[in-house]
Design goal:
6-stranded mixed β-sheet, 2 domains, 18 strands, 17 helices, globular
């Protein structure tokens, strides 16, 4: 066998798709440019776990004679989805709280009765690391079957040094046990720990003096996040935590302006945060600040839908200002108990005025930008990891349109089929 033929046979061609969406376009649809960079009649060549090229099927077959083929059966081929904001490691679900909310019981009343984030804290502290790994594995399988191949996972249900480390160690183990690639974020500042009630500054001291050094020493987180919100952590406290995180080599993220405008977006821009997340109550100044700074605006519409909110983050204003948009699931047991990122795309299109092409780019290349992944993840371009998802629809516009329908027909990680179908 000639060297050329042998090389061709090491290639796999994804062919016969109705559309291939490379997701290499701009964040916002404008001047006829397509954020999804969708092409009809095209295929994808893959070898050694990376994308070689996107080109017409006939050209690929001529260029790689004898290559293995994956028939896409007239479906839509996209990059694997990148979910850049999740809380996937937790103990029990909180359906009891959902039932109360459905009866009109306010969130603060549920919290007074022992619900909310602190319910998850009590539960998680009592569980072993092994238990957390076992509970999370099926959730990650659901995520994979819905087309997600990379996901961020935050700590934040421990709120004590060893419990936070336990969560992050579980994330590290989960990365070795299943195919969804997990990016760990330290969120010890998710809430003030219950034993520090009324002493938030003392808890900040614990975060800065004990938790952050321990996380950095073990090398088990890439980012540090803070929930900056009135009644949780104010600007002064949030800045102190994130500047300390920078000193320990952890890049900042921020839960910003979720329920009330508090200057979170402005602080994220000032600190050069990788992303500012939620942004339901972001100010005009905050929009301009993160757009100028290049901080990714990560929006979580499934959360607002689940909580029954009537207003959503200003996606169009963010896009028009030049911000990079990411969409994420916010998968967690209290306010967004779904790992389905396509549903977040649907909610963004229906409630935020995002186009289907913009929503797909935000759930792929946008998510990769929100995690500072510089390897081409979230796109189908030469040299990018061959993470792909095949969908039982014929066009990008159909993917968010088919509300809550299981559409994923196949998932590949680094060129190896790992799920769906």
């Amino acid at each position: 066998m000639s060297d050329r033929l042998a090389a061709a046979r090491a290639v796999t061609l994804f062919v016969e798709a109705a559309q291939v969406a490379a997701c290499t376009g701009p964040s916002r649809a404008s001047d006829g440019r397509d954020p999804a960079a969708a092409r009809a009649g095209a295929g994808v060549a893959v070898a050694a776990g990376v994308v070689l090229e996107v080109a017409p099927d006939a050209e690929l077959r001529a260029r790689y004679p004898g290559a293995a083929e994956v028939g896409c059966a007239g479906g839509l081929l996209t990059p694997g989805l990148v979910d850049s904001h999740t809380h996937a490691v937790f103990g029990r679900w909180r359906a009891d709280e959902y039932a109360l909310r459905c009866q009109g019981v306010p969130y603060m009343e549920i919290a007074r009765r022992g619900g909310g984030i602190l319910a998850s804290v009590r539960d998680l502290r009592a569980r072993s690391e092994d238990d957390l790994v076992e509970l999370t594995l099926p959730r990650l399988r659901e995520m994979l079957q819905a087309g997600t191949t990379t996901a961020e996972v935050k700590s934040g249900y421990g709120l004590a040094t060893e419990a936070e480390l336990k969560m992050l160690r579980a994330v590290r183990r989960l990365n070795e046990l299943q195919p969804v690639e997990l990016v760990p974020t330290f969120l010890g500042a998710h809430e003030v720990a219950p034993e520090f009630r009324g002493r938030a500054d003392d808890y900040v001291e614990l975060l800065v003096d004990e938790m952050l050094p321990a996380v950095a020493e073990q090398g088990i987180a890439r980012f540090c996040d803070v929930f900056m919100e009135p009644g949780v952590f104010d600007r002064r406290q949030s800045e102190r935590i994130l500047r300390a995180a920078l000193e320990h080599g952890l890049r900042p993220k921020l839960h910003a302006d979720e329920l009330e405008g508090s200057g979170g977006a402005e602080l994220a821009a000032e600190l050069g945060a990788v992303s500012a997340d939620h942004l339901g109550a972001v100010s005009e100044a905050g929009i301009e600040a993160i757009a100028r700074a290049g901080t990714v605006a990560t929006l979580l519409p499934a959360t607002l839908f689940f909580l029954g909110k009537k207003s959503y983050a200003p996606a169009r204003a963010l896009l028009d200002a030049g911000a990079t948009l990411a969409l994420a699931s916010d998968f967690n047991p209290g306010s967004s108990p779904t790992p389905n990122l396509v549903f977040a795309m649907t909610a963004a299109c229906s409630q935020m005025g995002v186009t289907p092409a913009e929503s797909l780019r935000a759930a792929t290349a946008g998510g990769a930008a929100a995690l500072a992944l510089g390897d081409g993840r979230g796109t189908l371009r030469a040299g990018a990891p061959a993470d792909l998802a095949l969908w039982r629809v014929q066009s990008v516009r159909e993917l968010p349109y088919r509300l809550a329908t299981p559409l994923c027909a196949g998932v590949w990680k680094r060129g190896v089929r790992v799920g769906a179908g």
